[in-house]
Amino acid sequence: MSILKVSDLKKSYDKGNTFAVNGISFEVEPQDIVGLLGPNGAGKSTTINMISGLLKPDSGTIRYGDGKTFDEWKRNMGLVPQELAIYPEFTAYENVEFFCSLYGFRGAKLKELTEKALEETGIQDAGKKRAGTFSGGMKRRLNIACSIAHEPKLIIMDEPTVGIDPQSRDHILNEIIKLNQKGTSVIYTTHYMEEVEAICNKIVIIDSANIIACGTIDEIRKQISGKQNISIEYLGEPAQAMRAAEELKGIRFVDNVQVSEQKITCTLTSRSEDLFSIIRPIANAGVKIVNINSTEMKLQDIFLSLTGKDLRDE
Ligand code: ADP
Ligand code: MG
Hints:
The chain is an alpha/beta fold. The protein is built from eleven helices and 13 strands. It has a six-stranded mixed beta sheet with strand order 5-6-7-3-8-9, sandwiched between helices. Helix 6 (166-181) links the parallel strand 6 (154-158) and strand 7 (185-190). Helix 3 crosses helix 4 and helix 5 (136-148) runs parallel beside helix 6 (166-181).
């Protein structure tokens, strides 16, 4: 059984000149927490807005459940949008009740679901307060409560932890794990690798509208196992260091060579190689090495190793 299967999805906002999403495919199976990871502008929101029916794809297919139409399946989805979608004049309770009522719930069942969603997001005590008076973190939690009250099979979250306090963030991540343990599948969009590592079992890494890596967290981990990040501090002219870097780029087991004013960094793709083959070209270029540091490559580094860009700078 499949919850969702997205195949070769494409979307352009400028009549095909550039693509915000350019051939994205992935599958969500029951109990998955799929992390859609990528920097700002990668195409994450565009992807999930197509999945949740807010945007029409230019091409590609989205299969819901085991072949349901969007209309048959949409009540099984809950979207937590990137922009807050709550009414500041309503109380927290009224907000959740309103969104839940859109799915046809009334009376005692509506009350039960509303109370449950407030409790699950840890804002039950503030149920009678107006949403407009809430802190950023509380608003985020309320935004989530509104999207999960109707007990969807698939919750789609668009960067729910951006700009909030660490306590709310931890609460949200824990809540996602709890919902998942009760059988809910999740698509979780973020530009924080550590969040993906903490809660997701599958990961789809997107950059500039395309998938650059995907698989289970374990599969992605295997890709980096045994790789070392090497950082070489030097004294001297960056121009000399650049020349050394050109030499390093030619070495079979060296990847991702970068030069700054103080440092040359690179990735060693195999543990068994002789470090001297890195040091020699640097010394030969007349660069004085003052420190060498080697660290195990982490999941956090994978985006950099695939794209040459640092996700953390975004
Ligand atoms: P992400 O959610 O990963 O930050 P988006 O899906 O929002 O990325 O954006 C992908 C690309 O599409 C970006 O280049 C963005 O500027 C562009 N884009 C997004 N929404 C619109 C829009 N409504 N009109 C025009 N361009 C858009
Ligand atoms: Mg976005």
